[in-house]
Structures are given as structure tokens and as C-alpha cells.
Amino acid sequence: MLKKTNEEALIENPGGGEFEREPVPQSKWKGWGSFLGMYAGEHAAGTEFMIGPLFLTAGVSAFDLIVGLLLGNFLAVLCWRFLTAEIAVKNRLTLYFQLEKISGTTLVKFYNVANGVLFCFLAGSMFTVSATAIGIPLGMEMPALDDVGPNGITYILIVLTVGAVTTFIAASGYDTVSKAANWMSPVIVLAFIVCGIVALNQLGVNSFSQFWDIWGEGGQPMGGQIKFTFWHVVLWSWFANAAMHVGMSDLSVFRYAKKASSGWTTAAGMYVGHYMAWIAAALLFAAFLKTPAGLDMLSSGDIKVAPGPLAYNAIGWFGIIAVVLAGWTTANPTIYRAGLAFQTLLPKSPAAWGTLVAGALATVAGLFPAFAMQLLGFVGFYGFILAPFGAVIVFEHFFHKKAGIRKNYAELAGIQFNPAVFWAWAISFGLFYFLSWQFDVFVSFVTLPAWLLCGVLFLVFSRKWQQRA
Q1: How far is the C-alpha of 283 from the C-alpha of 280, rounded, in Å?
Q2: Would you state the pLDDT for residue 2?
Q3: Which of 218, 239, 425, 442 is deepest in the core (most CB within 10 A)?
Q4: Is the model more confident about 443 or about 147?
Q5: What residues contact residue 35 under an 8 Å CB cut-off, 6+ apart?
Q6: Which residue spans traverse the membrane (predicted)?
Q7: 390 and 397 in contact (C-beta within 8 Å)?
Q8: Which is higher by pLDDT, 380 or 449?
Q9: For residue 158, is pLDDT > 80?
Q10: pLDDT per position as a tens digit, 4-50
Q11: CATH class, 6-380 region
Q12: What is the pTM of this model?
């Protein structure tokens, strides 16, 4: 889901000579086909094995899940097409260089650290996903939905091992990572398809009405999850990748596009990964709940949403392999990208050091299965933090003339810290986080208002401070 595959990570490699501080020349522009496969592959990953079952534990109804995901993913595609890709082909700059021009180098470092830490938490949750598969032949006790810390020495040893191997590979360079991801992505997509088909057979589904009845009118949430309604599904699926589209992270990808219409290729990711894969993974959990082990789990109230056993229950050892590969292909490039973000703090140090720091932090995070078990909330919070930075770029691009402000002000004024950017983000984040916390509002409901407020405040503050200069 949030995994950045080979092409994007290579694009953003600051040491790779990939035009990280200049517009991409026309000779390097790519057609829409270069993006289609990338997005289709990157959004069918380890996170999908967790998110699908978590929808079911949130008590969604059939209509809320099936129609809500259709709408929410379509809104995400529109953002990629008419905001991210549109700005990318106009400026052809990475997010980091574009943000540096507006906010200054100091604020970009703050963004990079925040981005890197959140990426480490995501990678850590994928270590949990892989551990649930590797732990099956080892007889490991699976983490429960409400577990916070590790539940045994076997889990700890598996996470430490997976973390060390993943970090070592990521630190050795991206060539190995990218080649492996190219081979693994089709296998993972095939696994989701097979899992969905097998789960339907296990559930005895022979018609669309029977498929619809799997979720029916929904139920009560399990294991401390909140109840998901139609709008929870729509807004969560819309903003699951908020940092990438309205947050403008994928400027770094679409700066290579010949036309902004390449933004439509994100639909492949949304409807292969964020629709087919999520529903297939949810079907795995639904099928498991019908087994004696699933019925015992429900009666005990000790809810466990472990991707490994779910996939193993459907397709045996192929399921175990698919879960391990999916977790690995998410965690590896995620650690690599987090390392690049940390590297900006010490640009003269060896590139591998940033990756090693990121891997260590991700491994520690992986010891706490709460990051994986609460992935719906974490992903929503991730987008909520980073998306408003993208509003700064969007509002400056489309409204700088009407607002009477100068573009790329930090670059023009030679400043390292643009207070207009910082205070616009801090006020919008602080206000809506307080409202979310005080009134127990799911964070995806306040992501769009925070994004809009940040953009408006940036224009207002920029006009004020630029007139003073």
C-alpha cells in the first residue's frame, strides 16, 4: 500500500544522479506504461494482508466496504491525476527540492526526519507480518489484536532476524532490492487472487448475493477496534496514501511523466491493491472465522489477525511464502527510503549509515505488534501528519498570483526557515489533532480540513511576511 518500489526509490536516491536538484530533462520523460506496472505492483504488498482483515474486525457492512472502497480509491486517483501529476509535469522537481525552495533547508530536514521515523514504524509493522508466517512451522504464539509488546522469545528472535537481514540488504544498495521486487510483485498479486478464490470456495460462495452476505449489515467491532461506517471506509481509503498524493510525495515519480494524464495509472494500484487485495485478505479472515480455530477464537474473545495463519489456512505453504515476500518487499524499500531521509542530517557520512539507523529503529518498532494490529489508525495518522506539507505546494502553485505572493520564497530570499510554512502546518495540525483527540474523531475525518486550512494559512502568512521583507 505505502511501499515505494524500485523506480521511485531510484528516482529519489540523492546519490544516484537522478536530477534530484534540477528539472528532469525531456530526454528522460516516460510514457504512461512506465507507471502502470509500478503502481499495480507497489500497492499489493504486505500491508494489504493486514488491512483487509482489519476492515472485518471493524464491523463493516457489505455496502460500506464494497461501495466505500470504490469511491474512496477513486477520489485518491483524482488527487494523483489533477494535483500531484499536474504539478509534477509543470515543475519536474522532487518533493524534497520543491519543498526546500518554498520552506528552506531547515524545515525540509524536519520533514525528512518525521517522514523517516514514520517509514520505520511502517517497516516494523511488516516485520510483524513476516513473523506471523515464519512462526507457523516454529509453533510461535501469534500476536493478538490488542497486544502491544512481544508475546514470547520466539517472536522476538524472528523479528530480530528478519530486521537484521532486511537492513543488511537495504544497506547494500538498491540494485538488489529493485531486482528482487520485480520478481516478487507478480507472485504476491497472484497469491492475493488465489487466496480470494480459495476463501470464496471455503465460504461456499456461488453467487454475488452470497458474496454480499459475508459482510451483510456489518457487526460489532472486535478487539478494541472502532466501528467503521461508510464514511470511515471512504475517507480512510482516500487518505491511506495522503502523504503520496495530496502530500505531494509522488512528485518525485510523476516528474518523469510525459503528460499529467499518466496520473490515471494510479488506478491500477488502487483497484488491484486497495480493492482486490484488501477484499481478498478480508475473505481470508472471514473463511478462518468459520473454522473450528476461528470459532474458538471468537468465543474466547482473544482476537488474532495474523496474516501468516490466514494465508496458510487458504493456500498452505504458498501462503506462508507470499506473506513473507509481501512483508519483505514492503519493509526493504521502506527502510531504504527512511535511510535516505535520515542521511540528509549527515550528508557527508556514508550512505549506509542512514539505512542502518533506519533498520535498527524499524526492528525495535517490529518488536511491538501494536503497529501492525493498529495499522488502520497508524496509516491514517501518517497521512494526517505529512499531507499538510503538500498543501503548501498545491496552494502556492495554483493560487500564488491571486494571493499576491512570490513562488519559491525561501530560495528567492535566501532563507533557511520560512515561518509561513511552519506556522501554517503547526496550527492546522495542532487544531485538528486536538479536535480529533478531544471529541474522539477518527483522524481520517480531519485530514482534508487540516490540509485545506494549512494551504489557506500558508497563503495568508506568506502575504503578510513577504510584504514585511
Answers
A1: 5
A2: 45
A3: 239
A4: 443
A5: 253, 254, 257, 262, 265, 266
A6: 62-83, 117-140, 152-171, 183-208, 228-247, 268-289, 309-331, 351-372, 378-399, 420-436, 442-461
A7: no
A8: 449
A9: yes
A10: 433 444 444 433 445 767 888 888 888 887 788 778 767 777 788 88
A11: mainly alpha
A12: 0.87
Say whether pLDDT at 168 is over 50.
yes
Q: Do the Cβ atoms of 1 and 48 come closer than 8 Å?
A: yes
Rounded to whole angstroms, the Cα distance separating 283 from 286 reads 5
Q: Residues near 201 by Cβ (< 8 Å), separated by ≥ 6?
A: none
End-to-end Cα separation, the chain, in angstroms: 43
- For the chain, the farthest-separated pair of C-alpha atoms sits apart, in whole angstroms, at 71
Neighbour count for residue 3 (Cβ, 10 Å): 28
Instruction: Determine if residue 61 is left, alpha or beta; phi over 0 gives left, psi from -120 to 50 gives alpha, anything else beta.
Output: beta
Residue 72 CB-half CA count within 13 A: 25
State residue 337's pLDDT score: 75
- Could you tell me which of 104, 145, 136, 123 has the C-alpha nearest to residue 46? 123
